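Here is the promised in-class demo. Please do not try to memorize the tokens; focus on the logic of going from shape to residues.
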């Protein structure tokens, strides 16, 4: 009995450790977006009267010439808006990559980049 219980405790601990160290590649930017962003910015990124759209020329005209790192900082620093739960760092990277893919700036399904890679990528 004791051995069984110890085995269970070990299994639970192992599961906790592996989820705490989930790498950015395990996180779906699309899922993060649907959960934390689409309620305001919409699933089709179109936005609304009160919320800017996140694809197309409007978006590109605000971000062209800046880096993907600037976009990451803007999202991580201000989204979701104050009063709502902030995301984990890896989730911010995944959702930024998802926006880049949705704007045709990054290849779809190319995985989560590092922060340094985002810094080095100019939005054009
Ligand atoms: C409660 C509604 C709401 C949620 C949820 C929300 N946003 Fe926003 N977002 C806004 C509003 C309103 C603005 C415009 C005001 C501002 O810039 O703070 C904005 C602005 C932005 C901008 C700047 C747009 C631009 O092109 O300059 C980005 C990028 C953005 N949001 C991304 C996100 C992402 C990614 C998420 C999910 C992690 C998210 N937002 C969640 C309401 C929301």
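The designed amino acids, position by position:
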């Amino acid at each position: 009995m004791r051995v069984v219980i110890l085995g269970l405790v070990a299994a639970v601990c192992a599961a906790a450790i592996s989820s705490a160290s989930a790498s950015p590649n395990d996180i779906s930017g699309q899922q993060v977006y649907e959960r934390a962003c689409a309620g305001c910015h919409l699933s089709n990124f179109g936005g609304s009267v009160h919320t800017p759209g996140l694809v197309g020329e409007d978006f590109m005209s605000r971000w062209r010439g800046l880096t993907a790192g600037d976009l990451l900082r803007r999202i991580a620093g201000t989204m979701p808006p104050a009063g709502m739960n902030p995301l984990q760092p890896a989730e911010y990277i995944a959702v930024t990559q998802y926006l880049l893919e949705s704007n045709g700036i990054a290849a779809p399904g190319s995985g989560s980049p590092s922060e340094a890679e985002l810094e080095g990528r100019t939005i054009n």
